[in-house]
């Protein structure tokens, strides 16, 4: 989104007036593009982007034309809006936003405005309609009930990844309140799927809302898998009476939870569509070499640099588990930084459990919400008794880490925390690699 267009949309308007009512009016004015394709709606706290990407990849492998809307964006903002893994062209993105800007100036009394996220959502709905996609996989942004994506007319699936404590005070103050807010994306008579290992109180809320909406409720706890490490990671699965195995390319132990949800969706989808599929072959082709940017992503080879946008307690817990499982004995240098509205103290407490690790502390590239690196240093000192070096700029932290690792060729560099931290580091590494190849 270029600067001129950005200035016409507010940064954040969540819960300010009837946002859903306004967005429904806007979509109606545009001819209800969201009614032109069946929608699979993904909500939750962690794992939404990975689950959405996997489902989109499977549908694409079936020969479908698939629209995918995800957030936060990794790399260029246009990556949030994709068809068959290709980002919307910048000129088309600008065209939709310009059209929307003009519509809002003439809309009602001319005083209504949209946030950047709301504008991107509406642009995506139009783009997917104009491009005549077969399905849309739609990831919620911040919440559920009041999230911009909940302005769509209807959905065929409501899929809930792991729901945890995040955005406290905005979505609710307890896990039940947060789950209730998210549960409101469930539509009358659709199929609702819950990821495995949900907290009991979350599961109760989702089941109750599904029952109230006469929606079919499925729990991915029923899906059994076993990961076998061979030359290629092999996953053995059983869903109901169907079993098999497939190659699974996504690193990070937490992706096994997400893939159980995807397996349950696929089992239900093929039954409803009366499809006769070689499921194991389909899954290997779709997921065997799939990558999800910013999720335990190896972005650099020498030294090995892995980035992960884990920024809340559940996600950091999963990240720490994956690091311990895969790199327990290896020397690790970890660059980290958080937003000040996150539970950064508990995040630090968890990161401090990683063996053979030292840290470089920085701040995300978000002036309004960043946690000052010296405050983070104090938290680390209180928890670990050690004073780790601080950097006001993520790239400075990266350069210092690369310099240090040049004397330790086996050292692993991990970048974990806010997407406002991993995005600039990721962009820098990709551009550096591109320049060196020229």
UniProtKB/TrEMBL annotation:
Keywords: ATP-binding, Ligase, Magnesium, Metal-binding, Nucleotide-binding. Gene3D superfamilies: Mur ligase, C-terminal domain, Mur-like, catalytic domain. Residues 294-419 form the Mur ligase C-terminal domain. It comes from the Bacteria. The keyword Ligase applies. GO terms for cellular component: cytoplasm. It is an enzyme of class 6 (ligase). It catalyses: (6S)-5,6,7,8-tetrahydrofolyl-(gamma-L-Glu)(n) + L-glutamate + ATP = (6S)-5,6,7,8-tetrahydrofolyl-(gamma-L-Glu)(n+1) + ADP + phosphate + H(+). One of its GO terms (molecular function) is metal ion binding. Its EC number is 6.3.2.17. Signal peptide: none annotated. Residues 42-262 form the Mur ligase central domain. Belongs to the folylpolyglutamate synthase family. This is tetrahydrofolate synthase. The lineage of its organism: Bacteria, Bacillati, Bacillota, Bacilli, Lactobacillales. The gene is folc3.
């Amino acid at each position: 989104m270029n600067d001129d267009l950005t200035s016409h949309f507010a940064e954040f308007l969540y819960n300010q007036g009837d946002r859903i009512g306004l967005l429904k009016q806007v979509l109606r004015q545009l001819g209800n593009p969201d009614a032109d394709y069946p929608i699979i709606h993904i909500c939750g706290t962690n794992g939404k982007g990975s689950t959405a990407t996997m489902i989109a990849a499977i549908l694409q492998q079936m020969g479908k034309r698939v629209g995918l809307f995800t957030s936060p964006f990794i790399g260029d903002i246009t990556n949030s809006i994709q068809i068959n893994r290709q980002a919307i062209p910048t000129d088309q993105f600008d065209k939709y936003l310009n059209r929307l800007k003009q519509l809002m100036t003439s809309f009602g009394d001319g005083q209504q405005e949209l946030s950047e996220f709301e504008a991107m959502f509406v642009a995506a709905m139009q783009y997917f309609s104009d491009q005549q996609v077969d399905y849309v996989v739609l990831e919620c942004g911040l919440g559920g009930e009041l999230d911009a994506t909940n302005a769509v007319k209807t959905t065929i699936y409501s899929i809930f990844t792991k729901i945890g404590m995040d955005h406290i005070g905005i979505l609710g103050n307890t896990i039940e309140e947060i789950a209730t807010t998210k549960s409101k994306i469930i539509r009358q008579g659709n199929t609702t799927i819950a990821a495995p290992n949900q907290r009991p109180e979350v599961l109760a809320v989702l089941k109750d809302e599904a029952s109230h909406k006469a929606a079919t409720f499925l729990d991915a706890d029923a899906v059994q898998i076993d990961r076998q490490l061979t030359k290629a990671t092999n996953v053995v699965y059983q869903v109901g009476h169907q079993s098999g195995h497939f190659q699974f390319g996504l690193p990070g132990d937490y992706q096994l939870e997400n893939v159980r949800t995807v397996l349950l969706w696929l089992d239900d989808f093929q039954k409803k569509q009366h499809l006769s599929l070689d499921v194991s072959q389909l899954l290997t082709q779709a997921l065997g070499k799939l990558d999800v940017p910013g999720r335990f992503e190896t972005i650099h080879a020498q030294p090995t640099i892995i980035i992960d946008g884990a920024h809340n307690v559940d996600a950091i817990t999963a990240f720490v588990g994956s690091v311990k499982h895969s790199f327990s004995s290896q020397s690790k240098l970890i660059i980290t930084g958080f937003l000040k509205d996150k539970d950064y103290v508990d995040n630090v407490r968890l990161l401090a459990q990683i063996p053979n690790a030292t840290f470089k502390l920085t701040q995300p590239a978000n002036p309004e919400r960043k946690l000052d690196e010296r405050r983070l240093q104090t938290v680390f000192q209180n928890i670990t008794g050690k004073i780790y070096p601080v950097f006001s700029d993520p790239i400075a932290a990266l350069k210092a880490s690369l310099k240090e690792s040049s004397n330790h060729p086996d050292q692993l560099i991990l970048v974990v925390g806010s997407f406002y931290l991993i995005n600039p580091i990721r962009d820098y590494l990709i551009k550096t690699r591109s320049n060196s190849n020229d």
